[in-house]
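@channel sequence for tomorrow's demo:
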Amino acid sequence: MDFARSLKRRAQAAIPPLVFAALTGYFCWNATRGEHGLKTYALREQQLVVAQKQLADAEAVRDALETRVAGLQASHIDPDTLDERARLQLNLADPSDIVVPYKQGQELYK
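structure tokens (generated this afternoon):
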């Protein structure tokens, strides 16, 4: 009987540390590999760097296009930009222009 009682007492004494160890393991695992863990944080940081580069590229393209469009505003029409766009749309060239041919499918402007 003493053996059973001592075994029961040891089992009851071991339950709280085992529960604490399991909880600690659970939180440690989630801190490193969980949805909001360190590995996910590092991955999101890399994605942020890529997204910021894409944003900078898109803003540079937008700024270039805004500069070109500004020359076609009704309040201020830049004759060179108007002439360039008209020739591009009509696919014409001035006889005094130097024409540089591009390969098929290669665009001058993007």
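heads up for whoever presents: Residues 38-70 form the longest helix (33 residues).
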